[in-house]
Amino acid sequence: MEAEYDLYTIDETKALDKKYNNFYSCFFQWTNICTVVHWGGGRSLSETLIGFVSFSFMASAVYVFNDMRDVEKDRKHPIKKNRPIASGKVTKRAALLLLAVCVGISSGLNLVIQQYIGLGILLFYLIINILYSIGLKNLPIVDIVILSFGYVLRIIYGAMLVGVEVSGWLYLTVFAGSFYMVLGKRRNEMKSTRPGETRSSLQLYNYDFLDKNMYVCLALVEVFYALWALEQENTLMVWSAFGIMVILMRYSLDVEGISNGDPIEVVMADKVILILGILFVIYITVAMYIL
């Protein structure tokens, strides 16, 4: 397949660089542990917030390590070349220090709230992501599974943190949704880079495989979510499945356009998705905790 470098114009690339260049953009990904936050759980609000910050620091360490490992390849990527380390704005020495500080703060915060199992989950999260960065990301399918499992670990940690039992259907929804987003990102990476200039696993995939499995996972997300909604006490939750369908349609429309498929960029660049997401959260909150 011939590469397509015109997915972003120079101006669009600079705009994305300005908007997503800082590490704070990673914070958006961690908010999905809030889907299990329940103020009636076994933890106080302060402990819950400390746990949330702890996971955020550990996730930051993962992103820093990944950027350190991928610095040379990122410099050849039309978008990733603008990342702090790849662009030279942050030195490797400074990045290594930042990584150590993030891991130390994350571990310390878990010890403060006596979340020893939680600390084990976070260290496991760190280890599998390090293994991913140093080699597993080059293995097809394995790379997608690890990235998707990272989202599930967020839910497991969040549920354990606030003492809430999470439905199996919700776990399956998150897993399928993670597969959907990661497959979409890999598919669009294939469109925007030349073979040999990015991760080697892309050379072992093909566009049709990624595209078909992406939409299989999309269908599974809608089915699993609908099954989760059906088991809720409030029958109004069933209608939230319609919201999921609309949001995913909009997301798919963006991915099929000029987007490079990165979930953060897709969502943050589309105000319609943000508005739909806010309305969805409001509806869920009202249906589950007010009505």
Give the topology.
Layout lengths: L9 H11 L6 H4 L14 H25 L1 H4 L9 H4 L4 H21 L3 H19 L7 H21 L5 H25 L14 H24 L9 H16 L7 H6 L2 H19 L2
Helix pairs in contact: 3-6, 3-7, 3-8, 6-7, 7-8, 8-9, 9-10, 10-11, 11-13
Can you give a write-up of this model?
This protein has about 290 residues and is mainly α. Residues about 1-40 have low confidence and may be disordered. The chain contains 13 helices and no strands. The radius of gyration is 19 Å and the shape is globular. It has helices spanning about 10-20, 25-30, 45-70, 70-75, 85, 90-110, 115-135, 140-160, 170-190, 205-230, 240-255, 265-270, 270-290.
Please count the beta strands (DSSP E, at least 2 residues each): 0
Q: How is the biggest beta sheet arranged?
A: none
Helix-strand category: mainly alpha
Q: How confident overall, as mean pLDDT?
A: 81
Shape by Cα distribution: globular
- The rounded Rg comes to 19 Å
Q: Report the sheet-strand fraction.
A: under 5%
Helices and strands, in order, run as HHHHHHHHHHHHH
Give the end-to-end Cα distance, rounded to a whole number of Å.
53 Å
- Poorly predicted regions are 1-41
User: How much helix, percentage-wise, in residues?
Assistant: 55-70%
Number of helices: 13
Features:
single chain; 291 residues; mainly alpha; 13 helices; globular; disordered N terminus
Quick structural summary:
The protein has 291 residues and is mostly helical. The chain is built from 13 helices and no strands. It is globular.
